[in-house]
Amino acid sequence: VKFKNLTDNFLKRDLQHVMPSLGLADEPVPLWWTSDFILASPVGTPSSEEKWIVGEFNCSCVGISKCLAAYCKDDTPNAGYTDISPEDLKVAEGYGDLMGQKAMSILNNAHTPVDVSSITKVAKDDFGLLPQPRKPVYKTALAEIYVSSQPYGGSDKSYNGHRYDSIPFANGMINAGMSCQLIHYKHQEHNKFFELCRSVHAIIVRCNPGQIKADGGDQQKFDDGMRAMRRLGIQVWPSPD
Length: 241
Known about the structure:
single chain; 31% helix; 7 helices
């Protein structure tokens, strides 16, 4: 296929970099968009080695060209859906079906528990924690701190590194229909931690006073991170203020 190299490279390798390159790293790729490519390789370059440049990325009310017969002009003031030919309508509805599938996929992912694999799992296990609901009503996280220099990770920890009362707190959220994942704050992963926190609706903070500092972190920096979450509309219990 002539454009296989372009298609494979863009969809499998480059697409994930489009939004960050546009200064919109926190935004998802739009549901319906088009992209124009410019061939940057000399004439005669084998298709498998061609280099392409994105000339334009357009998501501003992109139209389905097969439906153009349905919009009014001076000579077709009553144009509508029935003016689209059966052949064109079949293609247009194929696009619509694809959009529906993609939208369903996005929304299904939005209703699954948050992926917490971007930060280090500190606890040895999550014994006693109920299974997360497949489609939680809301997503929550319970934030803990493990003091690596202290026995057991601090005076309030169980053998596995969780605070002694974290499991009942989390299970209460789960029983109410929400997901609640146990996450440990490591000051070395400050940015990753708070990037993950942006994906939940609420954060239950269970970090004993003094333990963040005892582990080498900065309590003020942690509190400022939580304040930033509040400004995003994410609940923080308790708020640092």
